[in-house]
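STRUCTURE:
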């Protein structure tokens, strides 16, 4: 049976995915896990990634979270729910 194309994930899940990848993703930015959401959101904004627009973009499972995640990590989370 062929796999169905993944549909857009809910907005709250996309938000959580972005914040989790910023904290725990395999990236060189070293954002501490204890960093408040508001500080992480401000960090994205400072790096020219408007957070609300980023949430909408990342709802598409074919998109990745810029700056904080290699493609392979994002695909595993978005497509397999891991």
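SEQUENCE:
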């Amino acid at each position: 049976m062929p796999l169905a194309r993944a549909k857009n994930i809910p907005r709250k899940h996309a938000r959580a995915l972005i914040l989790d990848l910023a904290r725990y993703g395999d990236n060189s930015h070293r954002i501490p896990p204890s960093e408040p959401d508001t500080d992480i959101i401000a960090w994205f904004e400072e790096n020219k990634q408007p957070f609300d627009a980023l949430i909408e973009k990342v709802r598409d499972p074919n998109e990745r979270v810029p700056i904080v995640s290699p493609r392979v990590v994002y695909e595993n989370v978005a497509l397999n729910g891991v």
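REMARK: The longest helix spans residues 11-24.
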